[in-house]
Structures are given as C-alpha cells and as structure tokens.
Amino acid sequence: MFRPFRSLLLLGIAIVTILLSWLNTIEPARSLDFMPPDRGAPQRVDAGGARYSDFEVPGDREIPIVVNGEELECPLTAIVPVENYGLTFQEYPTIYVHVPDVPGAEVTFALRDDDDRIVYQSRFTLGHRHGTFGIALPAHANFDPLEVYRPYRWTLELEEYSERVSGVIVRVLPTETFARQLDRATPRERLALYAETGIWYDAIDTLAELHRADPENEEFIQIWQEITKSVDLMKVGEKTLL
Fold first, then answer.
1. 87 neighbors 200 (Cβ within 8 angstroms)
2. Quick check: 117 and 104 in contact, CB under 8 A?
3. CA proximity to 35, closest of 26, 44, 46, 22
4. 11 to each of 8, 45, 210, how far by Cα in Å?
5. Can you tell me the distance from the alpha carbon of 203 to that of 185, in angstroms, rounded to the nearest whole number?
6. Is the distance from CB of 78 to CB of 97 less than 8 angstroms?
7. Backbone angles phi, psi at 139, to 5 degrees
8. How far is CA 64 from CA 48, 68, 106, 107, 130, in A?
9. Collapsing DSSP states into helix, strand and coil, what is residue 76?
10. How do the residues of the chain divide into helix, strand and coil, expressed in percent and rounded to 5?
11. Could you give the CA distance from residue 226 to residue 242 in angstroms, rounded to a whole number?
12. Which of 50, 63, 195, 221 has the largest count of CB atoms under 10 Å?
C-alpha cells in the first residue's frame, strides 16, 4: 500500500533535483560596471594610436546653482566620467547633461574642435523641463561628422547664471569583430558591451533609450544609479533620465 506513495515521493525528489540543477546554471543578476576608456577592452576598439590620457580636458563637470540665496538640490552637470572625457562610436552622438529646476532657463550648447573652432551651436529654452536629458548632434545641421580620434570639447551654459559645464568627446572605431558583435546584440546586451569597453556616450544613450521604452523597469533605474555613483555623480543618479 505504500508503493504509490513511495513512487510519488521519489518522483518529487527527482523533480526538485532537476530544478535545483537548472537554477544553479542561471547566472545571478549582475550590476553593470563602466570601464574607464584607458582600461577598457583594447581588443574591441581600434584606437588609432590615440592616447586618451594626453587629451586636454578643461572645465568643470558640476557647477552648483544658487537661486534666491539657496543652492539647488542638484548642480548643473556634464554627464561624463571623472576624467571629464568619454568615447563614442557614433558620427553624430548624443551628449547628456543635467539642468536643475530653473523654470524658463535658457541654455547654450556648443561643440568645438581641438582648434577651438565652433563646429555646432544651439540655444534653447527649457520652459518647465529640467532633469537629465540628451542633446543629439543633428546629422542634418550641415556640419561634418566627428572625425575619428580627434577630441572635441562641448559646453553647456546656463545663461542667466553665467555658469557652464563641459566635457570632451572622442570618436573611435570598433574592431570588425566587435562591430559584428554589436550588430547581433540586443539593446540590453549592447549596453553591457559599451560599458565593458569604455564607450561612455553610447552606453548612456542606450541606457536612456531602454529606460524610455520601459520607465518602470527597476533594473534600468538601478544601473543608472550605479553608473553615476561609479563616476562620482551621485546627486544626478538620484534623478531619473528623461
């Protein structure tokens, strides 16, 4: 009379064993770590002999803004690594900034080459919009794509307060093998590949696209916080990407 029970018990143990074995093969969720460009994966990038550590990176990443005698919670911020420069694969990349809550603020964005010539400039009013957002370099604005291995300096000025932040962007090329890997990757996989290789601007833009497509996804919010923390921009990390 105990044989059916014993058979069911053995079957249950077998199923549990199989499930535990399967679960052990699943990788746990991992945080996304951004690798600085000089310590990225050189086998994935054709750097053309560029020495990023030699680039001049003048300017500030963060400038506190004081309104009516009180400093705003989050400063005017260039979303760049500690080194104040980052890499991109794009001819016309998107550059991210954080503008604090200053209603009606007028800002000027400018991109200059290494001869200090203005390549592109735009002036716009934010209205009631504030936070972290991207400024796309438009391919239709009648200026040439970023030259490979050439550093460009960009600035964002909050005109009313005569304050500006800046960063440097350098376009590099992926190796043929890495380019094929990126083409086959999902957006989530591309984000990890960009981060592991130190391609800052493309990593942030990909994360922003993922977040906009699924704004309630806690994973993307956590990755944003982790990346900003890794480059000492914790205050910005407390604010979501727009």
1. yes
2. no
3. 44
4. 5, 52, 43
5. 13
6. yes
7. -70, -20
8. 37, 13, 16, 15, 15
9. strand
10. 35, 25, 40
11. 17
12. 195
What is the value of pTM for the model shown? 0.82
Task: Write out the two tokens for 77.
Answer: 């911020």
CB burial string 147-157: b at 16+ within 10 A, e below: eeeebbbbbbb
- A 10 A CB-CB count for 25 gives 6
171, 147 contact by CB (below 8 A): yes
Sheet holding 151-158, edge to edge: 85-88, 163-171, 151-158, 106-112, 118-125
Per-residue pLDDT of the chain (242 residues; tens, 9 = 90+): 445 434 433 434 343 333 334 333 333 334 567 776 665 556 788 765 555 555 566 678 999 999 888 898 889 999 999 888 899 999 999 999 999 888 788 899 999 998 999 999 999 887 766 789 999 999 888 889 999 989 999 999 998 888 999 999 999 999 999 999 999 999 999 999 999 888 999 999 999 999 999 988 889 889 998 888 888 998 888 777 76
Beta bridge partners of 109: 122, 156
